[in-house]
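Data availability (excerpt). The following record was deposited with the supplementary files.
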Amino acid sequence: MTIYDQHMADDSIMLRTASELAAMVRRGDIAPSELLEHAITRYERHNPAVNAVIVTRIEEARAHAAVLDAEAAAGTFRGPLHGVPMTIKEAYDWADTPSTWGNVDWRDNVPGTDAVTVERLIDAGAVIYGKTNVPFMLGDWQSFNEIYGTTNNPWDLSRVPGGSSGGSAVALATGMAALELGSDIGASIRNPAHYCGVFGHKPTMSLVPFEGHVVPGLLPEVDISVCGPLARSAADLDLALSVLAGPTGLNSTGYKVALPEARQTRLSEFKVAVMLDTPVIENDSVMLDQLQRAVDALAAAGCVIEEASPDIDQHEYFENYLMLLRGATGAMSNDDVFAAAVEGSAAWESGDRSYQALVDHAMTMSHREWFQHHNRREGYRNRWAEFFGDYDLLLCPTAASTAYPHDHTGTRATRRIPINGGTEPVVDQLFWAGWSCNSYLPGTVAPVGLCADGLPAGIQIVAPHLQDRRSIRFAELVERELGGFVPPPGYE
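Predicted structure:
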């Protein structure tokens, strides 16, 4: 049997890393068209159950892959992703394809150009064949909307895949794509990576350009929001970041990116702080037990680990993040939603400290008040910098639990999830989302095995400002020590 026959008989090749697939193309072991057909085969077999890939342009992808075939045969390669099949989050502009953000009012939002990040991936040789599902306005850790329906977690179809890059993580976990492009303002890369057992990287703020990932008519970069990759290995995160990072537009005139390389090559060269719990929210013990086992294994492998956290009032920090987060997302709301928030903000002024009252107030606060919150954040950023003078990284949870059951009732503000035999507000998980990203810090999520409930857990690795490659390097060492990605049962 030839190498070609072996590949065509077994589409589990799509569970290999993007880096491995790109290397196979360069060696001539497989053609881009063959890889694409494997991805399509897995899409046709697995997508009906999980509903992750919700828009496809397969014939265009086949035509593009054929061009890449010819180039590879001639020894010409466009970049490090030449021939790698992938999908992208639905909210990214992909010319002549709807970018709805799961909002029925935007069904006809069909951009004529690619997002800068999409363009960079294509220029690097990627073959994009589809888009992956998101929640309405990217505002949930479930991924469902009225246009494309509900995406299921492949580890348990009754559970959520995370969000808002939920379809992205599922496409990776099931081998329908080798790489994914996501985004994150409230753990939207990190949360799905944790729930689905894949890798994700939330870059330092502004490192990856946002153009082409904005609501219709909006031009400025949105505070806290970042664009970044999801993958099945840490090396793939680094590869993707090398393609995606860098200035664009007016900044490209004089700016360039020169990210520091991680100087550490072994776990023993890292001094790492660990913070696995917080008094602000309740975290599920099943998940925490698995994270502790992972930390213990890393310590046994030589990593220098101490229990520590920045000198920051965690309750105040959480409120600061929520104010800035909902100020940012509220700026994208329509007139009806804003009008309702103006009315609802009276509750906050009257002393109501519920989550919904905070959201309404944050959406409608004055710029003067916003700047006060922002100024407080700048102080927090200085404290984080001092903290990282003593530690290389911080390890912490990504969410309050493993993936929870689907629940489309009520609103996000009213929903609750099972925690330690009881229930807690789902929005509490925003604590771990904002613990790093409110201060614009990079964070990588690496899978660290299955919990006692049979679901995957990912640990969040927080790095200093612009030390993205440090957290990714540590994720790579974690992967070597603990095993990294494993496919869900039935998707091997």
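Summary of structural features: The longest strand covers residues 443-450.
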